[in-house]
């Protein structure tokens, strides 16, 4: 154990997901793998029906409620299957075959979500930025009042765009918050359903957070498989079957860390600072430029390219030599993507900016 730590290189992790988590969380999680809370057992071998794990699940659910300031109607679940399962589970639970759901198409994740919804009912794409390779968030659109729900992706991980304000609509709002959950305040109670895979800003891969207003459930005609019906998970306290225990535990540690930082308000201030620093460095550079429209730029995933694309490989090599990890952009956008999730320290952003400036000086 000691040797592993002694040899550990210092890395600056800008990866889009799975992504950086607080150092203290890794330390606590490592200890728990060897001896959970002095039980003499590893967290990995502890039964999920034990009082120890029950306490973990209960605290994780109630911390989400506390941090997001949720009302009594909003239930918190930790489910399997990643966010992609929610693309299917949401319409399965909310949309009848003859009904229509409205979707905003702001990237690959939105378009994957609406593709799944088509399996269960009608889909109306009320707006799309596809023609512009998803470099902006559409502003002028209307959501028909008879839509069963309106689905948005609050932060578009691949393109570096983000809804800075949530559109006011008269139908239930469903949001994929995978890559900006817990990073900024939103009026979370105004959403009928929120889902997020843990691996971007909440914990390790393997668990999905679902926040659902229980009043919207139970209104579809189709027979739902037991494991797909949110109501069964609510009834069983998110323990309908064996939960992904380790992923839930590490998510709990991350949520505890977030609370210690001062919660969402406090982390949002730091996140704003990190994003402003990096965007201003890019805007003021002669070599780099962002890909997203300025007003819609994401505070979580900063996507940028080089004005001279032939230099991109060189910069990636330099970044790698400096221990900057995970900044290669998604293949559909190219260039670079620096993800500034909650656990990424301000010092890492400063460091990236220094390396960019140094590179610029030498070319
Ligand atoms: C990563 C991501 C997903 C996919 O998550 P999986 O857990 O891999 O299914 C969905 N939506 C958004 C916005 C994402 O960033």
TrEMBL record:
InterPro entries listed in its UniProt record: Aminotrans_V_dom (IPR000192), Pser_aminoTfrase (IPR022278), PyrdxlP-dep_Trfase (IPR015424), PyrdxlP-dep_Trfase_major (IPR015421), PyrdxlP-dep_Trfase_small (IPR015422)
Catalyzed reaction equations: O-phospho-L-serine + 2-oxoglutarate = 3-phosphooxypyruvate + L-glutamate; 4-(phosphooxy)-L-threonine + 2-oxoglutarate = (R)-3-hydroxy-2-oxo-4-phosphooxybutanoate + L-glutamate
GO cellular component, one term: cytoplasm
Boundaries of every Aminotransferase class V domain copy: 13-350
GO biological process: L-serine biosynthetic process; pyridoxine biosynthetic process
Highest taxon in the source lineage: Bacteria
EC number, as in UniProt: 2.6.1.52
Pathway: Cofactor biosynthesis; pyridoxine 5'-phosphate biosynthesis; pyridoxine 5'-phosphate from D-erythrose 4-phosphate: step 3/5; Amino-acid biosynthesis; L-serine biosynthesis; L-serine from 3-phospho-D-glycerate: step 2/3
Co-factor(s): pyridoxal 5'-phosphate
Gene Ontology molecular functions: O-phospho-L-serine:2-oxoglutarate aminotransferase activity; pyridoxal phosphate binding
Keyword tags: Amino-acid biosynthesis, Aminotransferase, Cytoplasm, Pyridoxal phosphate, Pyridoxine biosynthesis, Serine biosynthesis, Transferase
Cofactor note text: Binds 1 pyridoxal phosphate per subunit.
Modified residues (N6-(pyridoxal phosphate)lysine): 200
Localisation per UniProt entry: Cytoplasm
Binding site for pyridoxal 5'-phosphate: 83-84, 109, 157, 176, 199, 241-242
Chain residues that bind L-glutamate: 49
Subunit details: Homodimer.
Role of this protein: Catalyzes the reversible conversion of 3-phosphohydroxypyruvate to phosphoserine and of 3-hydroxy-2-oxo-4-phosphonooxybutanoate to phosphohydroxythreonine.
Family: Belongs to the class-V pyridoxal-phosphate-dependent aminotransferase family. SerC subfamily.
Protein name according to UniProt: Phosphoserine aminotransferase
């Amino acid at each position: 154990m000691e040797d592993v730590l002694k040899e550990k290189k210092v890395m600056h992790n800008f990866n889009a997901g799975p992504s950086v988590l607080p150092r203290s969380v890794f330390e606590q999680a490592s200890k728990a793998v060897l001896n959970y809370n002095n039980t003499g057992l590893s967290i990995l071998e502890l039964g999920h029906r034990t009082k120890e794990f029950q306490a973990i699940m209960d605290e994780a659910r109630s911390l989400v409620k506390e941090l997001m300031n949720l009302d009594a109607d909003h239930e918190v679940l930790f489910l399997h299957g990643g966010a992609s399962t929610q693309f299917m589970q949401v319409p399965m639970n909310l949309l009848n075959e003859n009904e229509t759901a409205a979707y905003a198409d702001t990237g690959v994740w939105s378009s994957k979500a609406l593709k799944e919804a088509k399996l269960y009912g009608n889909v109306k794409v009320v707006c799309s930025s596809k023609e512009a390779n998803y470099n902006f968030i559409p502003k002028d659109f209307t959501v028909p009042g008879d839509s069963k729900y309106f689905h948005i992706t609050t932060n578009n991980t691949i393109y570096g765009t983000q809804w800075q304000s949530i559109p006011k609509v008269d139908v239930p709002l469903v949001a994929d918050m995978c890559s900006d959950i817990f990073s900024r305040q939103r009026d979370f109670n105004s959403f009928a359903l929120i889902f997020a895979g843990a691996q971007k800003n909440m914990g390790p891969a393997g668990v999905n957070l679902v926040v659902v207003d229980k009043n919207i459930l139970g209104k579809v005609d189709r027979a739902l498989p037991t494991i797909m019906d949110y109501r069964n998970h609510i009834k069983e306290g998110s323990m309908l079957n064996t939960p992904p225990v380790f992923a839930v535990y590490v998510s709990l540690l991350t949520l505890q860390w977030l609370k210690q930082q001062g919660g969402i308000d406090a982390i949002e201030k730091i996140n704003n600072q990190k994003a402003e620093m990096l965007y201003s460095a890019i805007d003021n550079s002669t070599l780099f430029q962002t890909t997203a429209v300025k007003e819609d730029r994401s505070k979580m995933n900063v996507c940028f390219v080089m004005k001279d694309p032939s230099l991109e490989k060189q910069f990636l090599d330099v970044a790698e030599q400096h221990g900057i990890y995970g900044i290669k952009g998604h293949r559909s956008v190219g260039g670079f993507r620096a993800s500034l999730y909650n656990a990424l320290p301000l010092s890492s952003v400063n460091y990236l900016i220094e390396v960019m400036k140094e590179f610029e000086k030498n070319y």
